Amino acid sequence: MKPILEFFPIALFFIAYKLSDIYTATGVAIASTLVQVIIYKIVYRKVETMQWVTLALMVILGGATIYLQNEQFIKWKLSVMEWLFGLVFLGSQFVGNKTIVERLMGANLELPKPYWKRLNLSWSLFFLSIGFINLYVMQNYSTDDWVTFKTFVVPGLMLGFIAVQMGFLYKFAPNPGDEK
Known about the structure:
Blueprint: H1 2-19, H2 22-44, H3 49-68, H4 72-91, H5 100-105, H6 113-140, H7 143-169
Helix pairs in contact: 1-2, 1-7, 2-3, 3-4, 4-6, 6-7
């Protein structure tokens, strides 16, 4: 259910945009992100910090988009979110004993410490890069193109990046028959 819940606001944003305009789509995205957080709270009894940050940015930048009738604010949300992810991942290289990637995957995978840092750094650079690519797209292409980029290209890039990471991590995966 979590993967469906994650893409729920994105899908509704896209549908609303195609049926109406960027301002209606932004209102739908704000409402659906709020519903997403409420569902997380009810079903999982916990809302992650980044979900709260996403909701806050959606309300602030989405609200500014609607109130000021300026679509640039909602377009900036993607870059701001990706940069926050990138900076948090990068910061975890220097704070604490484990990087964020190691905290997320360490229970299922054993890697030498330098590999965790490289993996974490690659995620940080990926997120930062997506933020800058979004800036390029929002400044050089139409709103239709930007919506397509946000809805399909960014998730596609994420899946491709995950596939590359999985290829790298495959050699470290435990064999099912191995005992610890």
